[in-house]
Design a protein that fits this description.
This protein is mainly beta. It is built from no helices and eleven strands. It is globular and about 40 Å long. The chain has strands at about 1-5, 10, 20-25, 30-40, 45-50, 55-60, 65-70, 75-80, 90-100, 105, 110-115.
């Protein structure tokens, strides 16, 4: 029904920036919320940021104002702009779409590595 393709990860130095993209295809009507999660080795997957259908955004405490989640509806694309990256941001980042009736879809994940 829905396919999510996330991309934009890579290797950056501390203090650098990346913009992650998540392109949705299929039947994407009825979305309640979209978000980005991340998972580092040996750790649980954790929420990074969410944006609901009305445009309200929420961020995890560790974001500390460094990231921005936004969407471009005409392109069915959600973004996560990440600035001032830290080594502890290293993880696989996953986009997620949740529908009003509870169905959730995930992207395949994109690796972000922050290292000098």
């Amino acid at each position: 029904q829905v396919q999510l393709v996330d991309s934009g990860g890579g290797l950056v130095q501390p203090g650098g920036s990346l913009r992650l993209s998540c392109v949705a295809s299929g039947s994407i009507f009825g979305i309640n919320a979209m978000g980005w999660y991340r998972q580092a080795p040996g750790k649980q997957r954790e929420l990074v940021a969410t944006i609901i259908s009305g445009g309200t955004t929420n961020y995890a405490d560790f974001v500390e104002g460094r990231f921005t989640i936004y969407r471009e509806s005409a392109k069915n694309t959600m973004y996560l702009q990440m600035n001032s990256l830290k080594p502890e941001d290293t993880a696989v980042y996953y986009c997620n779409v949740q529908f009003l009736w509870g169905t959730s879809y995930w992207g395949q994940g994109t690796q972000v590595t922050v290292s000098s």
